[in-house]
């Protein structure tokens, strides 16, 4: 979700600068609200578990897209096995259908350079930490390769602590190395509950149950998990004063809504390039440990088995970054 949200922020900039180009963004139906109100961006809903399942499904996806839109360019923003197969299908089917050189030269493909080697080096404990390209910059480079106008400069999203009344909290992440321990997050909510209205975001039954317990325990804490559509959640986020999020989708949804985000970082690091679009100047809560970052995505188990990068962040530190 976070990757698509970042891509949506970039697409808004690129599409605005190239109004004569029709962009078709192939992604899950669930993510379509990210692209609302971008006139020349159309979402093509893809279901990889049914209609476009497996290798034959990828072939079918390209054929369906090309039959409907007559594709001139392909921008691969993912560079994983499935998108590589999609590009291969496009090249193969195009060669099979016509062998006109002029026809081939009009067809352009650009693939993202994710900087995988640089990120592996960043996660090596004995190297000096340096800021890598942000994900939004890498997305922008893809469109630049296609010779489109690509002047993308995120406008900093300012944070005004003195004006905070409503705080969104996105306390979950896909991997343990990126998620602030729930028992400590509850202490954060206990502290913030005294002075602010808190709105919890998340997904899934387990997260819903956790947030429900917090809501029942603290009068100013409100769980939104499982109660709203994505479009509705985006509207609620737009009404917040600040979002508190892990290195996860909550930060990127805040960027889409032009809301400042205070982010918490554990096994991962802002240097890997995943800071929210326009959020670079906002507080990033993290500990300076020689073992950080140990992972790009937070999916590796802690070698010390204690996740000190997260447990070492106190609730008071988080409060201090908010007010």
Which helices and strands appear, and what pairs or packs with what?
Layout: H1 2-17, E1 23-27, E2 41-45, H2 54-69, E3 73-76, H3 81-97, H4 101-105, E4 108-111, H5 116-122, H6 135-145, E5 166-170, H7 182-192, E6 197-200, H8 205-217, E7 221-223, H9 230-238, E8 242-246, H10 249-256, E9 261-264, E10 284-285, H11 308-311, H12 315-322
Parallel strand pairs: 1-2, 3-4, 5-6, 5-8, 6-7, 8-9, 9-10
Question: Can you put this structure into words, describing what you see?
Answer:
By secondary structure, this protein is α/β, with parallel strands linked by helices. The protein folds into 2 domains: 2-145, 3-Layer(aba) Sandwich (Rossmann fold); 161-322, Rossmann fold. Helix content is 39%, strand content 13%. It has 12 helices and 10 strands. It has helices spanning 2-17, 54-69, 81-97, 101-105, 116-122, 135-145, 182-192, 205-217, 230-238, 249-256, 308-311, 315-322, and strands at residues 23-27, 41-45, 73-76, 108-111, 166-170, 197-200, 221-223, 242-246, 261-264, 284-285. The strands form 3 sheets. It has a 6-stranded parallel β-sheet with strand order 7-6-5-8-9-10, with helices on both faces. Strands 1-2 form a two-stranded parallel ribbon. The chain has a two-stranded parallel sheet with strand order 3-4. α2 (54-69) packs across α3 (81-97). The longest helix is centred in the first third of the chain and has 17 residues, at 81-97. It is globular and about 65 Å long. The two termini are 29 Å apart. 36% of the residues are buried.
């Amino acid at each position: 979700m976070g990757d698509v949200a970042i891509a949506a922020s970039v697409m808004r900039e690129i599409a605005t600068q190239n109004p004569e180009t029709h962009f078709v963004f192939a992604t899950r139906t669930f993510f379509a609200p990210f692209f609302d109100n971008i006139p020349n961006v159309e979402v093509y809903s893809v279901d990889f578990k049914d209609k476009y399942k497996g290798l034959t499904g990828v072939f079918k996806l390209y054929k369906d897209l090309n039959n409907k839109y007559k594709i001139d360019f392909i921008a691969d923003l993912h560079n994983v096995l499935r998108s590589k197969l999609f590009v291969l299908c496009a090249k193969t089917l195009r060669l099979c259908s016509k062998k006109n050189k002029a026809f081939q030269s009009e067809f352009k493909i650009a693939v993202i350079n994710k900087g995988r080697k640089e990120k592996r080096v960043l996660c090596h404990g004995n190297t000096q930490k340096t800021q890598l390209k942000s994900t939004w910059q890498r997305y922008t480079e893809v469109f630049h390769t296609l010779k489109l106008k690509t002047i993308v400069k995120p406008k900093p999203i300012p944070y005004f602590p003195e004006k905070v009344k409503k705080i969104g909290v996105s306390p979950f992440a896909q991997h343990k190395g990126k998620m602030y321990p729930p028992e400590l997050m509850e202490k954060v909510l206990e502290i913030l509950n005294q002075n602010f209205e808190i709105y919890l975001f998340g997904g899934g039954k387990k997260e819903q149950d956790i947030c429900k317990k917090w809501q029942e325990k603290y009068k100013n804490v409100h769980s939104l998990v499982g109660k709203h559509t994505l479009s509705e959640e985006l509207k609620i986020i737009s009404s917040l004063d600040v979002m508190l999020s892990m290195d996860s989708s909550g930060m990127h949804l805040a960027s889409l809504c032009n809301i400042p985000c205070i982010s918490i970082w554990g096994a991962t690091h802002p240097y890997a390039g995943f800071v929210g679009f326009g959020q670079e100047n906002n507080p990033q809560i993290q500990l300076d440990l020689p073992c950080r970052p140990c992972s790009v995505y937070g999916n590796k188990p802690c070698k010390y088995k204690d996740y000190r990068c997260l447990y070492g962040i106190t609730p008071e530190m988080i409060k201090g970054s908010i007010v």
